[in-house]
Each structure stands twice: as structure tokens, then as C-alpha cells.
Amino acid sequence: MAQVSFKGYIQRAAEKYIDVSEKHSKPDGQGGWETVGYTNFRVWIPENQRGQQFEKDMLVEVSGKQKTETSEKDGKKYSNLIVSAETILVQNRKESSTRAIQSASDILDSPF
After folding, report:
1. 23, 55, 84, 92: least buried by Cβ within 10 Å?
2. What is the pLDDT of the chain when averaged over all its residues?
3. What is the four-CA torsion angle of 9, 12, 13, 17, rounded to 10 degrees?
4. If you average pLDDT over residues 81-92, what whole number do you get?
């Protein structure tokens, strides 16, 4: 497993995990940026933090351990990026500040 840290937007929030999408951009040649793709992660929330409020479109910074799992659907193979979170910070876009809502040194009930 690799140690990872990234920022992204919550696409789905469930009881035990959040799905986070990290946007990739490049200069558009006119002084702006264009989106060239996304990386999607399933982020497992530690047991002792599962009551926290996570909502779609929240900007979060995630740090944790990542592994890749392979799945198949309709005859097509997919690589799934799974992160067992150690910390998740919600980014407050209006005030450009960060508040910690989750921190765990031991990850209970994670898939690893």
C-alpha cells in the first residue's frame, strides 16, 4: 500500500465511505486552465469518525493508505483506487480556511 495525499470534491457520501474526485488540469494557452481528466477514489472513513457530516461537492483533503483493486463489469475490467483515510480535512472555500473533522491513528473496520 502507498501513502497518498490529495484534494478533491465529494461525489457521494455514504455511512462508511465517501467517493472523491480529483480534477487534473493543464494550461489552455490563453492564461486559463482546462480540465483534462479526473481520478476517482473510494475513501473509507474510520469507525470512530462515521458520524461526521460529509456532503456532495465538499472540497476535502485526504491523507491515507491507498491500494488498487480490479473489478469487472459487462466484460470490461476496471481499476479501483481505495483509500483507508488517516485524516480528512474539509476545505472551507469561502474563507480559504481548513477545519479538521477527522483524524485517526488506528483505522478500525477498514478494508485493510
Report:
1. 55
2. 83
3. -90
4. 90
Q: What is the largest CA-CA distance in the chain?
A: 48
Q: Which one is the CATH code of 2-103: 2.40.30.20, 2.40.50.140, 3.40.50.2300, 2.60.120.260?
A: 2.40.50.140
- In contact, 100 and 111? CB cutoff 8 Å: no
Residue 93 has what pLDDT?
60
The answer for residues whose C-beta is within 8 angstroms of residue 30's C-beta and 6 or more apart is none
Map out the domains of the chain as residue ranges: 2-103
pTM of the predicted model, to two decimals?
0.73
3-state secondary structure the chain: CEEEEEEEEEEEECCCEEEEEEEEEEECCCCCEEEEEEEEEEEECCHHHCCCCCCCCCEEEEEEEEEEEEEEECCEEEEEEEEEEEEEEEEECCCCEEEEEEECCCCCCCCC
CB 65 within 8 A of CB 83: yes
User: Does the structure show a pLDDT above 70 at 94?
Assistant: no
